[in-house]
Amino acid sequence: MTMEVALEDNNLMEKVLPPDEQEIDVELEAKEKKYLRGEGANLETLKDKKLKTQLASREKLYGKSAKAAAKIEKWLLPASAGYLETDGLEKTWRVKQTDIAKEVDILSSRNQYDIVLPDFGPYKLDFTASGRHMLAGGRKGHLALVDMMSMNLIKEIQVRETVRDVAFLHNDQFFAAAQKKYSYIYARDGTELHCLKERGPVARLRFLKNHFLLASVNKIGQLHYQDVTYGDMVASIRTGKGRTDVMEVNPYNGVVALGHSGGTVTMWKPTSQAPLVQMQCHPGPVSSVAFHPNGHLMATSGKERKLKIWDLRKFEEVQTIHGFHAKTLSFSQKGLLAAGTGSFVQVLGDSSGDYSRYMSHSMVKGYQIEKVMFRPYEDVLGIGHSMGWSSVLIPGSGEPNFDSWVANPFETTKQRREKEVHLLLDKLPPETIMLDPSKIGAMRPSRRKERPTRGEIEAEKEVAVEAAKGVELKKKTKGRNKPSKRTKKKKELVENVKKTFPEQEQGAAGKKRRIGEDAAADLPSSLKRFARKN
Amino acid sequence: MRIKTISRSVDEFTRERSQDLQRVFHNFDPSLRPMEKAVEYQRALTAAKLEKIFARPFVGAMDGHRDGISCMAKNPNYLKGIFSASMDGDIRLWDIATSRRTVCQFPGHLGAVRGLTVSTDGNVLVSCGTDCNVRLWSVPRPSLEDSDLSSEKSTEVVHSICGLYLQECVILSFTSRAVDHQFEGDLFATAGAQLDIWNHNRSQPVQSFTSGSHSVISVRFNPGEPDILATSSGDNHISIYDIRMSSAARKILMRTKTNSIAWNPMEPMNFTAANEDGNCYSFDGRKNEEAKCVHKDHVSAVMDIDFSPTGREFVTGSYDRSVRIFPYNGGHSREIYHTKRMQRVFCVKYSSDATYVISGSDDTNLRLWKAKASEQLGVILPREQKKHEYNEAVKNRYKHLPEIKRIVRHRHLPKPIYKAKAESRAMNDAKRRKDDRRKAHSAPGTVVTESHRTRRIIKEVE
Asked: Region entry Disordered: which residue ranges (chain B) (predicted)?
């Protein structure tokens, strides 16, 4: 008796958890969903028992690994995200950088600075994937490669030409600059490695990391994709929409989006000459485009001083923000949106569902902002402007925990070399760029060949008959060229063509009666095909 | 106002001394890894290609016999040695590890040696042959010094022995076709015109089973139950005997004769029979009406079969000059080994560490193959091991997709086998089409399709 009671107690204990553990359970379940990456397969439709049991055990394993990953996220990650919380009446967007500097530690306050270089024109920025190195390119030809952790200037060169855009290749060892007539690829120590003549004068340069493709749009509006591992020009596409210098890459699927002066945003992949998607986003020219890292959201800004947020799954507008003309846009890893206009930067956050003002920063009046870009894995926003570049703190914008195998800000030389080799081994072919990358590795549902409709058959028939009528018969000699024979021959030709098209169904008043469906059930299986199918 | 920003101190994220390991941090968030599926597919493709690049299964051939090899035996106690016997009565013990040489010979048989087996403690070797002899030999203990010494010794040994190892010789009145030793105990069975159970110390059989007019071709003791054995006879029967009973416990009549039987060491109630029609049939020993699985891939008669010690795979050698490795529950082979020089394969063995497969064939050679063709032999670092496991797993995840399937499935077949398979495929397709049409044009229920598992079984007796 006592044994039974003890066992019952144990069972009860398992079912009812203390309330704080219940909360944790719910939290863990929410996190688990993220790691499950969608729903499991529907195994009920399978008839093969062996396959069913094999797939069921696999699905169980997926569940277990998702649970383990959720637990690790909860307990084992070393750092937590930044935040900015105000109490009461204070608004977050009134908090200035100087106030922030008072509250945070020394290491973070080192990330707030202004570098003034008035002679070399508006600066464009680029960061490496790990956020450790930064490349600044001034319009008047100044290129500078900086190590952000030690604030070391690694190399600066003056190319003595206009530089319109700069981009890192797969790591900090190589970078590309779009100069006056051609684009050039430089090594880390400033040596010019390649001159990319085929592209012409380039307005924007972007690098697709997984595919090792350097994408650019030039002054004529042509889009070029070049594989930088062996130098082949994979695609050169004439967009047909004229000159544009608004180009961004969607990190989720590798698709390139161009913004045009007519207000359309087109999306391209290297394997097709026609755009994947054309969206009419603004009544006037599109100034800037930016993609959320999860691939579902796109922000565009137009010259009519509106900023629109689009959902890319349905291609619908989610939100419009009025008020300012954003020359440059950037999304952070955590989903904050920075918009730069004139000498003013606004940072919008979606903590309340929609994007609303989170923080702002205004610079000295004369500084015209050229580019804003969030630094990966840090709470820092880099601003390139006409008098140099600056960096401000935006708490809560960066991903606090990096994965050493994906991007490691504390990389050693050996690790960098190994990673380069692995990146090259995992290089994706350009055919894998598509709007929905989860389709890779999935089975395509088999489609039966559909019969052409009646209208289509009729149209084909008419075309063939016309062709037959248009055939010129050879004029025969020696008395064989009688007109009656000629017309007979022509009629035969047309009739032959008509014969090749099968006769259409007669309808209810046809000669042969078809067996009704109720009678079909009594027929043996070989005769069942003669029963009328409705 | 509460503010917190990300600030990482360098000490936390880098190592202190150069002797320390580098610190590695993980974040499994999928949003950090765009296009992970495409990258995984690319890795699977690379893994499949690498596997094919490193697939070199042939390790070596052991030359020495002067006539085709008729049977082999594994010593359960000594991993590196294997016994083989040829059609001219020559029995040798080979060292297959480093030297691949004959360690010693057991001369004495006058005709072909038909069966070879070793007792479980590894001391006694039993052989039987067409000269109506059953001989018991004592197996020399391997010395502590390894193969170098043994290779020197072998030259001496070959010349000097003369019945040095022979323990006993029993003369029967008929030729015996096969012999097998019990797993625990002192009994062994010989198969010939009748099935005899012998004890080491007696010169008369302890028990005899007669089964009709045809002789018993092969015999195999069950690894789990010491008193049960399976035999196959020339009149297409497979019989399961219990030594404690006086007649067969079960009999299955098939359409063609079974050349060899092997019990699954991990599931001792199941056995697989290698049949003359080119298929292998796995049976559950307790339920014999239908085969559990039909393994079809050989083109000609399957001569011998042996299970891996893991119980998950078995290797078969066939008359069509090839050796195939099958999964225990799958219908088709996962691997085929063939060479121009290897002629009809008469016996195969899976080594006791599940790494190698040994085949003995008509061209007087024993050949040593790797069980997994692209395996790296020797000591593997844990990092390498993990990488191999990852490659295997990612390849298995995408192996049904066309590009990868084509690479994983590809095997070069010798022309006769390729043509024979194409022909048999065409014949089977035609037969199936005709059967389907016959079924469609007759009254429903009159024509019944037989499943493959019962097709070749005529009946079960008792």
From this structure: 421-462
